[in-house]
Design goal:
The protein is mainly β. The chain is built from 2 helices and 8 strands. Among the domains are: 44-78, no CATH class; 84-173, HSP40/DNAj peptide-binding domain (Sandwich), CATH 2.60.260. It has helices at residues 99-104, 163-173; strands at residues 53-56, 72-75, 84-87, 90-98, 106-112, 115-121, 130-133, 149-156. Strands 3-4-8-7 form a 4-stranded mixed beta sheet. The protein is rod-shaped, with a radius of gyration of 32 Å.
Length: 180
């Protein structure tokens, strides 16, 4: 089949402006825009997650021929934290305690997102148990309140013990409530 095609495009001389610049300035080369970098400050709302984004209207590059400025889209990336793992708005912290602390109970001071807090370890705490610290997690995005801090207990088993410790452990091993 044969037919007729029509192609409409802006003028190659003036790019549709109706004006030809005979002596373009050395800074913009007749484009009317100068390329430069700038820094802006933004307020990041509490609770944003990995790959959340924020649109900053009118903060992007200026448009051609006096057109309005475009938008900047900021995409958030979370970096790993040295102490915490994020689980939604909750955070998980792993705590190593000794066998006597697990059996007898204790009170420990642990890090939180806002500083340090005391946590009571109940007598008989088992390895792998999660203890909940209410609203010590990440603030809910655009809502009131916060997630929880979950503390996972691990029992520290020493790799080496001295002869006195070995003897005490052997005595302990023969106690009736220690055997499972």
């Amino acid at each position: 089949m044969f037919g007729q095609f029509v192609n409409i495009a802006p003028c190659h001389n003036c790019n549709g402006t109706g004006k030809i610049i005979t002596k373009p300035c050395p800074a913009c080369h007749g484009d009317g825009r100068i390329y430069e970098e700038s820094t802006i400050k933004i307020n990041i709302p509490a609770g944003v997650t990995d790959n959340s984004y924020m649109t900053l209207r009118g903060e992007g590059s200026v448009g051609k021929n006096g057109g309005s400025a475009g938008d900047i889209i900021v995409i958030f990336k979370e970096l790993p934290h040295p102490h915490f793992v994020r689980d939604g708005d909750n955070i998980i912290y792993e705590l190593s305690i000794s066998y006597p602390e697990a059996v007898l109970g204790t009170e420990v001071e642990i890090p939180t997102l806002t500083g340090r807090a005391k946590l009571k370890i109940e007598p008989g705490t088992q390895a792998g148990k999660f203890l909940k610290m209410r609203e010590k997690g990440i603030q809910h995005l655009n809502r009131h309140g916060a997630g929880d801090q979950l503390v996972k207990t691990n029992i520290h088993v020493p790799r080496k013990v001295n002869s006195q410790e070995k003897e005490l452990l052997r005595q302990l091993q023969n106690m009736p409530h220690i055997k499972v």
